[in-house]
Specification:
By secondary structure, the protein is an all-alpha fold. The protein contains five helices and two strands, in the order ββααααα. A two-stranded antiparallel sheet has the order 1-2. Keywords: Membrane, Transmembrane, Transmembrane helix.
Length: 151
Amino acid sequence: MFEQLFGLPAHPLIIHAAVVLAPLAALVCAAHALVPAWRPRLGWAVVGLSIAAPASVFAARQSGLALKDHLFPDGVPGPMAATIGDHEGFAAPLLWTTAGLGLAGLLMVFAGSRAGKVPAAALSGVTVLLALAAGFYVIRAGHTGAIAVWG
């Protein structure tokens, strides 16, 4: 399912969605958490990106695994194994942090105002930390992927 799109390898196509949506979700969720005046205008974007970003990262991870299995059915040879292993190692943390950010974003929009000041502030803090973590992992995954292909 994740191996090809329109006869082309799916991973190079799908990663573009993850590379755009994960950082955008991090920025929008952090802005929603940090700037109360923007919350009414950002709510719809937080909800959409909280769903789309983890979905795109999941699809990117699955398509990457399918591409690796297609290109290297007997295992990745030699020094390339470490390079691809580094890149692959960032997929799960990126998925978990993006999923956590999505959950925190949805909680902020749908329960944040009803939670009270202290829980809402804690949720905002957790959201900002998850946004920073997701941003870190998307940069590291992208960088190691570029090194694997072009390096």
